[in-house]
Design a protein that fits this description.
The termini are far apart. A five-stranded mixed sheet has the order 1-5-4-2-3, sandwiched between helices. The longest helix has 23 residues, at 191-213. It is 55% helix and 11% strand. It is built from eight helices and five strands. It has 214 residues and is an alpha+beta fold. Helix 3 packs antiparallel against helix 4.
Length: 214
C-alpha cells in the first residue's frame, strides 16, 4: 500500500512539474493581433522583434529597463530592432537621435541618456544644439556629432522609420511586432512583463512556422 502511495505521489509531482514548464497560451485578438499585411523584416536569418517606441512616451521610459534585460537573454536566432515611431514631422528629430546613437556604436548609452534627459530633467531636446550638448556629455565632439546626425545614412534610416511606422500600423507605444506578422500592445491586463511573455510565445510560434515551411 505504501508503494502505491509513493508511486501516486511521484506521478502527481511529475504532473505539477509539467504544468510549471508548459508555456503559456495566448489568444489571437485578445493578447496579440495578426497584421493584415505582413511587413518585410530587416534582419535576414533572424526572428525579428521590433520595439516601436518614442523617447517622449512615459510608458516607453518605464518599459526600457525591462526590454534591455529581456534583449540580453534572447537566443541567437532572435534579434531586437528598435523603431522610433514617426507620426508627425516633429518626431523625425528624435528618431534621428536614435539612429545617430546606432551609427556611433552607442545605442544603449544614448537611449538611456535621452530618456533621462526628457523624463527626469524636463529637457525636451527640441533642437539640434540641445541634442549636441547631450552627445558632448557622452564624449562625442560637436563636429563628429553634426556630421553623423546629418549624414545620408542616418537620414535614410529616419525615412525608413517613417515608412515602417505606417506599414506596421503602429497605434501606440510601446508596441512589439514579431516576425513582421504579429503585434503586441501594452494593456492593463498584460502590463509590460506580460507583453514580453507574449513576445516569447510568438517567437516560438514564428520559429515553429519556419520549421514547418522548410
Amino acid at each position: 500500500m505504501r508503494i502505491i502511495t509513493l508511486v501516486l505521489g511521484f506521478v502527481v509531482a511529475l504532473g505539477a512539474c509539467a504544468q510549471e514548464i508548459t508555456p503559456a497560451k495566448y489568444t489571437e485578438g485578445i493578447d496579440y493581433k495578426v497584421l493584415d499585411n505582413p511587413v518585410r523584416t530587416i534582419t535576414p536569418g533572424k526572428i525579428e522583434v521590433t520595439e516601436a517606441f518614442s523617447y517622449t512616451c512615459p510608458h516607453c521610459f518605464n518599459f526600457e529597463s525591462r526590454v534591455v534585460a529581456w534583449e540580453k537573454a534572447l537566443p541567437e536566432d532572435v534579434q531586437l530592432v528598435k523603431l522610433h515611431v514617426i507620426w508627425r514631422p516633429a518626431m523625425q528629430l528624435h528618431a534621428r537621435i536614435m539612429y545617430t546613437g546606432h551609427a556611433l556604436g552607442m545605442a544603449h548609452e544614448v537611449d538611456a541618456r535621452i530618456f533621462k534627459a526628457i523624463h527626469k530633467e524636463s529637457n525636451k531636446l527640441s533642437s539640434e544644439s540641445a541634442i549636441a550638448a547631450i552627445f558632448r556629455e557622452l564624449g562625442v565632439d560637436s563636429e563628429k556629432f553634426k556630421k553623423t546626425f546629418n549624414s545620408f545614412g542616418v537620414s535614410s534610416k529616419v525615412q525608413q522609420a517613417d515608412a515602417r511606422t505606417r506599414n506596421m500600423k503602429i497605434t501606440g507605444t510601446p508596441q512589439l511586432i514579431i516576425g513582421g506578422r504579429y503585434s503586441v500592445n501594452a494593456t492593463k491586463a498584460l502590463g509590460h512583463e506580460g507583453m514580453l511573455k507574449v513576445a516569447d510565445f510568438l517567437v516560438e510560434k514564428v520559429r515553429a512556422e519556419k520549421k514547418a515551411a522548410q
